[in-house]
Amino acid sequence: MSSNIPQGTYLFQGNTLVMPGDIPDSLIHEGIPDNHIPASLGSSIKILGPGLIKSADLPADMPLPAGWRGIPMRQALSLMTQDVMVDGTGPVGWLLRAYHIAQWQRESVFCGSCGGRNETAADSLARRCPVCGRQEFPRISPAIIVIITNDEDQVLLAHNKQFTPGVYSLIAGFNEPGETLEATVVREVLEEVSLELHDIHYVASQPWPFPNSLMLGFRARYAAGTIKVDGVEIEDARWFSRDMLPELPGNGSVSRYLINRWRERKF
Ligand SMILES: [Zn+2]
Predict the structure, then answer these.
(1) How far, in Å, CA of 86 to CA of 114, rounded?
(2) Whole-angstrom distance, CA of residue 212 vs CA of residue 110
């Protein structure tokens, strides 16, 4: 993480970022200034390990202080700019880190080996089981996302069943045990749209804590095959020209960042 330490505190309530209503959208990733934190919440706030981020995951049934608002975390990310997202250091990185850890702490109450009740280590992010000694750290699951272009200067975009109707984005999928990231790119594209690729290159990454992914963005060139969607995850996939693009994913996602780079003829 950045050597700078955030001044503000990040408060969550489940998957929602909560804060005083007078903090503008442009500053939500900076956290809540100390003088805006009611004394009643002070005892809930913890320092998140060596990152020195102040954070709390408030109980789901706790009423918010008067005048506060909640923003779903995915929506909070869409309020931020592309470059800050992919840079990954600074306040957006702190917010993503605090959110990722808050979720993991909810899911790591008990030891995954013997079922003992984990204790939080004082000197690191780890949780330790006092019964069998097992240590657990926040889990990070790598996933690839790839922008595919062809010799006609078109981009392959797909509609996933989970997307908002009409929105098209890039092919993505989780890395599996034993795979290189490049192999994941090849397998996912073959499985989802039946295309073969060449010239596969890494471009940029983005922490995506929904709940614990690290998105690894690639670019690749079409090599062979005819689009045939899997019909399970992908409902439709097509080649799109620059001047005929469909509705795209919102700002704050690595998919939009990669598409924007292509539109700007960066690759
Ligand atoms: Zn144990």
Answers:
(1) 38
(2) 18
Phi, psi of 187 (to 5 degrees): -65, -45
CA of residue 135 to ligand 1 center, whole Å: 8
How far is the centre of ligand 1, averaged over its atoms, from the C-alpha of 108 (Å)?
A: 11
Query: Sign of the CA dihedral 251, 252, 256, 262?
Result: positive
- Predicted model pTM: 0.87
Domains in the chain with CATH codes: 9-107 (no CATH), 141-263 (3.90.79.10)
DSSP class of residue 169 equals B
- The string of pLDDT tens digits covering residues 218-244 is 999 999 999 999 989 899 999 999 999
- What DSSP string runs through 62-74? PPPPTTEEEEEHH
Ligand 1 centroid–CA 118 distance in Å is 8
Cα–Cα distance between 186 and 43 in angstroms, integer? 49
Q: How far apart are CA 224 and CA 56, in angstroms?
A: 50
List phi, psi (to 5°) of 233: -90, -45
